[in-house]
Fold this protein.
Amino acid sequence: MYQNLQVQQPNSKYKTQLCRHFITIGSCALGTRCQFAHGRQELRTNNQGMTNYNQPNIQQNHQGGNQNRVQHLNPMITNYKTQLCKHFNPQTGQCKNGSTCTFAHGEQELNQINPYLQNQYMSMQQQIKQQNQVTLQAELTQQILIMILTNMEAIFPGQNNIINLLKFGQEKARQGDNQAASEIIKQIIHDEQRTKEEKNQYQLIYNNAQNHYSQKLKESNM
Ligand SMILES: [Zn+2]
Ligand SMILES: [Zn+2]
């Protein structure tokens, strides 16, 4: 490695920038003789804490066809703080690009995480979390509907038309049709023929299911 450095022009920027060939086509003809970093893990920096930052754009390149888009993203993402800024004056701490400069102001800024990307990542995480919450609620609703429809069979012993309707509702819930399943419950409970006793029994079953639902939801948020 040291020898290669001598054969090529000695270069203070050795491996401080990502190789353009490597970024755009995913490989480089110079191989190990290349002065530029092939991926972030090769970037020469004292700031090792940031190297687990991944490389979505390089992945895209391997699939091909996205060259324009990647080049467009380069200033924002791929090259962010991977090179030392030429306009930065360490004496004054000033740069004509100010705080929006995508070049590193000193070695300690090399490979800093792009705040724009980090924001995107955070909002993506947030979205996934919300989506999981929606999925979980639907699954829990399905569970308690099946629970209610099954337990309701005990309220109507020998009343086959109702039992069949309840079984049909369970089937609907299992298929993920929570709407149809809860309509069936309403239809049975709001029937004029329901006695006070039947309604009380249903209320108990319903309360149990509600408790189960809240409990599970609480557990999942811990
Ligand atoms: Zn290269
Ligand atoms: Zn700058």
User: Anything to note?
Assistant: The chain has two domains: 2-113, 118-220.
